[in-house]
């Protein structure tokens, strides 16, 4: 992942077409990796989700079907799907009893046991492959005083249908009452329901890192409930 981020700043960032931190040094050495990046700590953490969706749409629209030919080292759909599946099947029983899940979210979680690989396969076919951030949550965004949005933390950069970035933005960061607005801001015809099961798996795994009954766990459950409603 760290080597991918170094290569991102060496090869992709200069041509990417959206705002990312300026890179002053990007090296892979025998001792590891080194990145020296622009300090954006004075910018506001996060981003307005509708504005963020438009930035993602710009990124995805710039590289349809082309990114892999430019950068063949990029992570492709389905990478490590077997490992994710094994981790999910092991993790789900540890969070299945949380009261904040509710029936709808718990049913979704149960349905995904043994089906993660199939969900990943369906997600990879949910649109043309393009350059994706891979972790397009609000925590990986900053907003300048002039409302410019920068995308940070490119360790998970890869090739996938662009809607996967949109889905993770929704599940990780957007209150359900704004989902329709954010989806409309993305503006592409999207196959959201096809990628949401795989993205929900990421949501459940992230929830497992929070304490049962905490505000963070409650927030994950709320957003996963919105995902479950759209999956049907």
Description:
The protein is of the alpha+beta class and 232 residues long. Helices cover 50% and strands 12% of the residues. The strands form three sheets. The protein has a three-stranded antiparallel β-sheet with strand order 3-5-6, with helices on one face. It is globular. The two termini are 34 Å apart.
**Rg to the nearest angstrom?**
18 Å
* Range of helix content: 40-55%
* Cα distance spanning the termini: 34 Å
Strands, total number: 7
Give the averaged pLDDT, no decimals: 95
Task: Fill in the CATH topology.
Answer: Aminoglycoside 3'-phosphotransferase, Chain: A, domain 2
Side-by-side strand order of the widest sheet: 3-5-6
Tell me the overall shape: globular
Approximately how much beta-strand content do the residues carry? 5-15%
Please describe the topology of this protein.
Blueprint: H1 2-12, E1 23-29, E2 32-37, E3 44-45, H2 49-62, H3 67-70, H4 81-95, H5 102-112, H6 116-124, E4 129-132, E5 141-143, E6 149-151, E7 158-161, H7 163-173, H8 179-186, H9 192-207, H10 215-231
Antiparallel strand pairs: 1-2, 3-5, 4-7, 5-6
Helix pairs in contact: 2-7, 2-8, 4-9, 5-10, 6-9, 7-9, 7-10, 9-10
């Amino acid at each position: 992942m760290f080597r991918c981020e170094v290569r991102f700043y060496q090869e992709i960032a200069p041509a990417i077409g959206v705002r990312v931190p300026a890179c002053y040094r990007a090296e892979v050495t025998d001792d590891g990796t080194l990145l020296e990046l622009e300090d954006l700590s004075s910018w506001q953490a996060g981003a307005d989700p509708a504005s963020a969706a438009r930035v993602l749409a710009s990124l995805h629209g710039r590289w349809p079907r082309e990114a892999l030919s430019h950068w063949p080292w990029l992570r492709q759909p389905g990478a490590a799907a077997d490992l994710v599946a094994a981790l999910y099947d092991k993790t789900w029983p540890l969070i299945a009893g949380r009261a904040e899940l509710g029936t709808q979210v718990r049913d979704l979680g149960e349905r995904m046991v043994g089906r993660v690989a199939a969900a990943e396969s369906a997600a990879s076919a949910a649109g043309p492959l393009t350059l994706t951030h891979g972790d397009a949550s609000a925590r990986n965004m900053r907003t300048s005083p002039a409302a410019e949005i920068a995308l940070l933390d490119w360790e998970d950069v890869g090739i996938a249908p662009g809607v996967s970035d949109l889905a993770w933005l929704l599940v990780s960061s957007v209150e359900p009452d704004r989902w329709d607005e954010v989806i409309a801001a993305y503006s592409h015809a999207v196959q959201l329901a096809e990628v949401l099961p795989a993205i929900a798996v990421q949501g459940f795994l992230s929830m497992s890192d929070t304490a049962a009954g905490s505000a963070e766990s409650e927030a994950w459950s709320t957003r996963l409930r919105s995902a479950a409603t759209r999956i049907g």
